[in-house]
Design a protein that fits this description.
The chain is of the alpha/beta class. The chain is built from seven helices and ten strands. Strand 4 and strand 5 form a beta hairpin. The chain starts with 8 loop residues before the first strand and ends with a helix. Bound molecules: adenosine-5'-triphosphate (ATP) and magnesium ion.
């Protein structure tokens, strides 16, 4: 079990309403969730049940109507928007269903981009981008522009970019949604290695029940609520390993 006095992520009594016209629509209706360090969480649930809203709230992008999001005991919404943006950059990597790279930058420049905005020296940013491309066996595409890549390759680019600052939590919202089965398996394999070898905590939303097998914790959502949580495994991670991953993220944005 993960050590330390706080869960890596804790969501407490979370509610989120959206105002549509004059009507307040409840979308998250009271979510309680704890994620330990090194878990691979898979979230399943019908379209519209609130999965993406939950991820966005965890990321600090959607202020909850009620309740709290705590990352290692830190209440995310006690910070202002800039504070949350910095926090997010350092702790989280995000992969979406639609790749969201910048068209006018080539692969390596896209991967380096989050470091550039964080003010990391250009040379250092490019060096780190090269390392991560190499790690994912994608370095031979470094000079390609995103539009010259296949869907699977574009998703690999999104993944490399999400990981450039060594985040300890990777959130993936239907990352395989637009990929064929083989390419999707390839991406799932990358996520699995990232989880089991690099000790990153993964929280992934999917519609594909085939991917239940990757989960240490399986969550079924329905209509704004968690209907069932299945703890399949408890990751065994030492305090030392946990600290190493966290230090790596601190260094990830070092200038
Ligand atoms: N900004 C918003 N304003 C109003 N309603 C919203 C907003 N964002 C989401 N919703 C509503 O909240 C509900 C949940 O949306 P969400 O995107 O979280 O679903 P989801 O579970 O991710 O679905 P899918 O599997 O289709 O991606 C939907 O009914 C949606 O219309
Ligand atoms: Mg969604």
């Amino acid at each position: 079990m993960a050590s330390g006095s706080h869960a890596t992520l804790e969501v407490r009594k979370l509610k989120k309403n959206f105002l549509v016209g004059k009507e307040e629509i409840p979308v998250l209706k009271g979510i309680d969730l704890k994620v330990d360090f090194g878990e691979f969480v898979v979230i399943l649930g019908p379209s519209g049940c609130g999965k993406s809203t939950l991820l966005n709230t965890i990321l600090g992008l959607e202020e909850p109507t009620e309740g709290q999001v705590l990352v290692r005991g830190k209440d995310v919404y006690t910070m202002d928007e800039d504070g949350r943006a910095n926090f997010r950059r350092q702790k989280f990597g995000v992969v979406y269903q639609q790749p969201n790279w910048i068209r006018s930058l080539n692969v390596i420049e896209n991967v380096a981009f989050p470091l550039n905005i964080a003010g990391v020296h250009h040379h250092t940013a490019m060096k780190r981008a090269k390392e991560i491309l190499y790690l994912f066996k994608f370095d031979k595409y470094e000079k390609y522009y995103p539009m010259e890549l296949s869907g699977g390759q574009q998703q690999k680019l999104s993944m490399c970019r999400a990981l450039i600052a060594n985040p300890w939590i990777v959130l993936a919202d239907e990352p395989t949604g637009n990929l064929d089965t083989i390419t999707a398996e390839d991406l799932m394999y990358d996520l699995k290695v990232l989880n089991s070898e690099s000790r990153r905590t993964i929280i992934m939303v999917t519609h594909n029940t085939d991917y239940e097998r990757y989960a240490t914790k399986l969550i079924y959502m329905e209509d704004g609520l968690i209907k069932k949580i299945e703890q399949r495994e408890k990751p065994v991670i030492s305090q030392e390993e946990e600290e190493q991953v966290i230090d790596l993220a601190e260094e990830g944005l070092a200038k």
